């Protein structure tokens, strides 16, 4: 993430000035456009949703009111029949004559039921379930024993009101037929079945607009659902006040209304995207305006930046000419702005520079060139390598292998140290430099200590500043294991960790006192060489990189060098 951010910053930093001006114009103009566009969209969407909810709620309440009026009309019919004294007497009389029974069924019960059904064609069935000895008569008169096992029977017998029930797409009302004029009246129940489709017809318009309908009774039992599968969101029953819900992977807006006559609750849930789809028309308009504004700003920014940059381009061209060695200035400006001042200042600087060059600089350059050549002759690495090669050859002639090895190690050490004057070196060459140095030290110390290397091959192809490890190894020898009697050991390890190369130099020497350890990398160098390495790493890579020192007295020291991996 950090590398990506640095890459983006570098990319923006390297853009030409004209492009930066265009981008600045675009960004400055896009901020208010985007803010206003977002505000417009948010407010419009909220307004449309509230308006749609209000319209849906009004339509739902109107449909619920229509259904309630129908149920109230059916209740009046049922109550009228239940309190009809002729029907009450017929339902509570014990018959001894077949003629008398036939007369009551035909002239009283049939006649009143027929009249009631003619008044409202939606009543599909009227049935008197009686506990008297009236014979069964089609669907008009049935024995009470037929319904005693129905789950709604106990509720009806405990109530004196008209109750509404639904079973398998059948909606019906039930009421007890009471007789308060005799001591032991019979149990009688009036049953009215209502046409399912006509009763729910007020909600057809809501369903045709993409809404889903659910009607539950007071016990939470299903009265009606518009879902073809019959499966409905049960969460509406557990939380009837919910206004939004997620069901079947879609977000719904939920409205509900009550039917006072039956105690039913009507839920209308509609996909929110259907409610908000009108907002996208306005969003498209806003986006078109935003794109038009951006295009206008881009054109204006291009024209302005081209006019603004032209003088800078001329100045840049003159600077490039000066860099190539010519001091002729062809750009002039009488403008009073900053660019005019810059052009005039550049012209004056070139004139003064030309005078200084003619007076001093050329002679100074010649003198420096002679000094540089003399210095190069003194430190010419070829002279050093040839001398070491001669020593190696003569040592081999007299079979002095230790001198030969020392000469070869010195040759390798100085070759990697000088590194052809380059400050950066391959990790593999830096390791070779350290190994050559340590072999020389082992010869000088008669192999009185051990050296171990654990270098991950993955880091060998990376680059690093040269001469970073040798001071650490030298420090481990001089200030660590040389003060031990015997058994000294130095370990160098290196690997990749979180995009960084981490080297660890560990020794089992005498360690460093805690009070000295805390100021070792902050104080001036005292011969350890650690602060120099630490400062180089911080200057090249940043303050978060460099050395970390861990040490215990009489147990040893670990120095950790950390810097970014760079191929």
From TrEMBL:
First and last residue of the signal peptide: none
GO terms, molecular function: kinase activity
Kinase keyword on record: yes
InterPro entries per UniProt: Bact_2-comp_sensor_kinase (IPR050640), HAMP_dom (IPR003660), HATPase_C_sf (IPR036890), HATPase_dom (IPR003594), His_kinase_dom (IPR005467), Sig_transdc_His_kin_internal (IPR010559)
Domain Histidine kinase: 469-567
Reaction catalyzed: ATP + protein L-histidine = ADP + protein N-phospho-L-histidine
UniProt domain HAMP: residue ranges: 306-358
Transmembrane segments: 21-39, 279-304
Subcellular location(s) per record: Cell membrane
Full protein name: histidine kinase
UniProt organism field: Paenibacillus aceti
């Amino acid at each position: 993430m950090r590398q990506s951010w640095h890459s983006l910053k570098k990319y923006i930093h390297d853009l030409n000035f004209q492009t930066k001006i265009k981008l600045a114009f675009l960004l400055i103009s896009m901020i208010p456009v985007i803010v206003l566009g977002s505000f417009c969209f948010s407010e419009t969407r909220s307004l449309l949703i509230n308006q749609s909810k209000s319209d849906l709620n009004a339509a739902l309440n109107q449909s619920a009111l229509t259904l309630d009026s129908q149920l109230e009309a059916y209740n009046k019919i049922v109550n009228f029949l239940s309190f009809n004294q002729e029907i009450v007497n017929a339902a509570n009389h014990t018959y001894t004559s077949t003629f008398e029974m036939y007369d009551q069924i035909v002239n009283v019960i049939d006649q009143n039921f027929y009249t009631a059904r003619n008044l409202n064609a939606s009543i599909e069935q009227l049935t008197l379930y009686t506990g008297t000895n009236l014979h069964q008569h089609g669907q008009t008169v049935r024995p009470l024993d037929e319904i005693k096992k129905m789950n709604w029977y106990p509720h009806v017998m405990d109530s004196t009101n008209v109750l509404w029930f639904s079973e398998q797409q059948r909606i019906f009302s039930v009421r007890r037929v009471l007789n308060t004029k005799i001591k032991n009246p019979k149990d009688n129940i009036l049953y009215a079945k209502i046409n399912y489709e006509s009763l729910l017809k007020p909600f057809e318009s809501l369903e045709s607009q993409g809404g889903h309908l659910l009607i539950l009774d007071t016990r939470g039992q299903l009265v009606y659902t518009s879902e073809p599968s019959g499966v409905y969101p049960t969460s509406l029953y557990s939380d009837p006040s919910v206004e939004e819900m997620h069901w079947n992977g879609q977000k719904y807006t939920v409205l509900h209304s009550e039917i006072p006559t039956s105690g039913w609750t009507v839920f209308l849930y509609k996909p929110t995207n259907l409610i908000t789809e009108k907002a996208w028309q306005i969003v498209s308009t806003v986006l078109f305006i935003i794109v038009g504004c951006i295009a206008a700003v881009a054109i204006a920014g291009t024209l302005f930046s081209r006019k603004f940059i032209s003088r800078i381009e001329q100045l840049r061209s003159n600077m490039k000419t000066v860099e190539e060695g010519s001091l002729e200035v062809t750009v002039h400006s009488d403008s009073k702005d900053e660019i005019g001042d810059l052009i005039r200042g550049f012209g004056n600087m070139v004139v003064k520079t030309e005078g200084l060059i003619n007076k001093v600089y050329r002679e100074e350059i010649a003198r420096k060139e002679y000094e540089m050549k003399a210095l190069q002759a003194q430190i010419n690495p070829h002279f050093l390598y040839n001398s070491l090669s001669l020593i190696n050859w003569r040592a081999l002639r007299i079979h002095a292998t230790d001198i030969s090895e020392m000469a070869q190690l010195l040759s390798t050490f100085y070759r990697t140290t000088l590194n052809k004057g380059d400050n950066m070196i391959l990790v593999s060459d830096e390791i070779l430099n350290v190994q050559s140095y340590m072999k020389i030290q082992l010869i000088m110390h008669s192999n009185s200590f051990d050296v171990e290397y654990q270098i991950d091959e993955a880091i060998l192809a990376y680059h690093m500043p040269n001469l970073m490890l040798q001071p650490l190894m030298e420090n481990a020898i001089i200030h660590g294991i040389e003060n031990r009697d015997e058994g000294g050991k130095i370990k160098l390890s290196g690997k990749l960790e979180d995009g960084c190369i981490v080297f660890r130099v560990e020794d089992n020497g005498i360690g460093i006192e805690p009070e000295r350890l805390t100021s070792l990398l902050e104080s001036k160098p005292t011969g350890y060489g650690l602060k120099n390495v630490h400062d180089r790493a911080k200057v090249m890579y940043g303050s978060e990189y460099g050395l970390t020192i861990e040490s215990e007295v009489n147990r040893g020291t670990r120095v950790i060098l950390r810097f970014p991996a760079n191929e």
